[in-house]
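As agreed, record minuted below.
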Amino acid sequence: MIECIVTFRCDCFFGRLLELAAMGCRRQSIVLFIFNFSRGAGSERAAATLANYLAGAGYDVAVLSICGDNTSFYDIDDRVELHTLFSHEIIDNRRDMARVLKALRQFYSLRTIDLVIDVFAGLSLYTNAVKRHFSFKNITWEHFSLGNETPVSRLARFCAVHFSDQLVVLTKADLSGYCRRYARSAVRVKAIYNASPYNCEIPLPFSDRKKVVLAIGRLTRVKRFDRILKVWSALEGNHSDWTLRIAGDGELRDALRAECAELGLRHVSFLGQVLKLEDEYREASIIVSTSESEALPMNLIEALSFGVPAVTLDYQTGPREILQQGVSGFIAEGETVDDQMNAMTERLDKLMSDNTLLSSMMASAAQGAKAFSLDEIGGQWLSLIHELLNDDTAN
């Protein structure tokens, strides 16, 4: 039977340290297995946050990348080891699968490992292929929504469901979807939100912020920044004292700049890749998201920590589990994308025109951040890991 329960218990950090001392044995070892940890995307942010938390909780933690330059784009605890199987090589998961499996077996054979956390279901294909040779357990941590699927990702999810010791998904919506799809399987499924890497701050009042609408993400097709440019073109004339700031880089950078010029937009700033996003969050008054799809958008979670309300399209999963509609933000509803974009334009116009409403939403956003705090989410991971490593009945 699937365990379709979202766990919200929180183990005490000091209790974990006392437990380790009482055991009088080596610290348990955890490896987070990821494709390329040096990239600056949301999954790498979530992995860095979890790795730092687990290292602080007394585990020996390593992050193992298949490829990359063996660095972390995000701040990483000195106690977290970084390893890369193929430094500075371009790896194709399908073409180079045999090479990766060989290198992975060699890496694991040189270490005593208790738990491997696959960051994305696709990597469970590797872990479940080699783990029969070792004694570690594994968690598959899927970062894509169930609706975002290709034939390869469907195979990977089937593998994760049937052979991983635990599957972790990011939303309750995906949890329900997995329970429906794999109702006859024996896998244990839990939903654990990604944690904000930032402490919850007392939000600055609107009077101390800039009139900035912030958009964050890779400049790729799925993020659809062209949509926010179209929305902004309908707003800029009536809000000339406001600025749209776009933080991120990617292959569509030049195309988006050209579209901005074609639309005649004068109050749009392209910031490129931003190392210290917290500075942008502190100054912004509103954050927007116009993606085609997301699993659980990190930028909306992080914005809450700084009391920044959101206006977002109503994509399949994520916003409804982060925002309280009309309280900590607006989810632009509509039967079609065009309907949603029209609703987004109206909602943004309302927020940018009503300082009282905006100030109220800022306070509510800061309250909503508590559900995504590192103590809350980290505690759920500690509970899960402790349960799994002490459960002899796991697969």
Residues 1-12, 18-24 have pLDDT under 50 and may be disordered. The longest helix spans residues 337-353. The CA atoms of residues 279 and 306 lie 10 Å apart. The chain has two domains: 3-195+373-389, 206-372.
